[in-house]
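Fig. S4 source data, part A: sequence.
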Amino acid sequence: MTLTAPETHAPGRTLRPRLALVLLALPAMLIAIDISVLSVALPQMAADLRPSPTELLWMNDIYGFMVGGTMITMGAIGDRIGRRRLIVICSAAFAAASALAAFAVEPWMIIATRALMGIAGAAIMPASMALIGRIFPDPKRAVAAMGAYMSCFLTGMAAAPLVGGLMMAHWWWGSVFLLGVPIMAVTLIAAPRLLPESKAPSAGPLDLVSAALSLASILLLVAALKLLVSDGLSWEPAAAAAAGLALGWVFVRRQRASDDPLVDLALLRRPGVARTMWVLFLTALLMGGTSLFWAFYLQDALEFSPLHAAMWLLPSTVAMMVASNLGPWLAKRIDPARVVAGSLAVMAAGFACYTMVSTGAAGLAAVICGSVLATAGIGAAFPFLMNEVISRAPQERAGSAASFVQTANEIGIATGLVVLGSIGTLVYRSQMGGGSWVDDFRAAETTGDTSLLHQSQDAFIEGFRVVGIVGTAIMALVLVLQLVRSRKAAESA
């Protein structure tokens, strides 16, 4: 069921590993920026291109949909045609799509080019993570390199609102797309000179049926989760979820029966991998779900402007960037398993801070402290968790393993929005006797009804506190999973 032939790679290509890592990190930063930078430009784009409500929704969401939906397929393609080659091809595609998007004159052009950018981004990230293991064969250096890679990704996410705001202040909306052209051009030129090539020489042709099943299943599941968040429970998200699960079941059956599967599910049977995947999924669920409450707390409960709110989110992003490099540094001095366990305990402390949220200065301090601890914890743990899965996979399937983990993260984030968002909504409605905090905040803002505003703020904060309690409980479960995995690993050593 798994490939056994040795992986091929071009010799003499990793003499400058640090430059190679920088080259891999630059596109990661750009991909992170593109995840959220469009929201800054969307008002001007809408005024210029005049999309319908449906077109506007697709303009905003198609990039994330394609990243999550095609990552497994693109990881498998990289394993077959070569990860460096795939990075070069997709860098060219990303640059071309970015240039076309900048000068789009119709909404469908934005949707099409953003879809292509999402597919290219889905290919570049797992290929890059697989190459990090090739460039840094020593496990400790690989973890440190993964931490630096994630720092650049997080820098892009943190910088997106500020970069987008600055570009929109001086240029037109198309400038946010042109940012990607020079970065991908550098990658296109430098990759053949700095990156090693690696692939599975005995891999068979791509299973197009499995690729289609994977894409359809993930897109339907993510769409169902998004519909639940925006519209609540109805037949549309239920039907999408049912169809997605059915296609996912067919996909899994096909992978188990194939001699050359798109995703080697045997990876989950390797020691500790399944537990590590659960840890990654649950932490992504919590981080994705609580991010929803951060934004509304700062902008609606505390009535900060979007820019002011973005500034208050910077400490948590800086904490994650620092921690993603601090974790590998600590692992040189103490057992890496203790670093991960300690990091998860820090995350749990962060979610516990959310139970003390309020409308005053103390509440703001609790939220900032909680976000800093939570993001620092995942920042320190993530490089180890990611490397744990990728290093357990056969080298010829490293790209598929990386894409598998990233897809689990994407689904975890979307699930968190639904699960924690629903919990917060239920608490809010129990306090208000029904309604939605989004509608109530907007109504209070429009009418100037201070009584409604204060009631909505108090009810929302109560929901946030309950989410903090749930998050702390889930993190306790995550910590138990990690400790069990570490104990079993120590016993088998």
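Fig. S4 source data, part B ends here. Confidence is low (pLDDT under 50) at residues 1-13.
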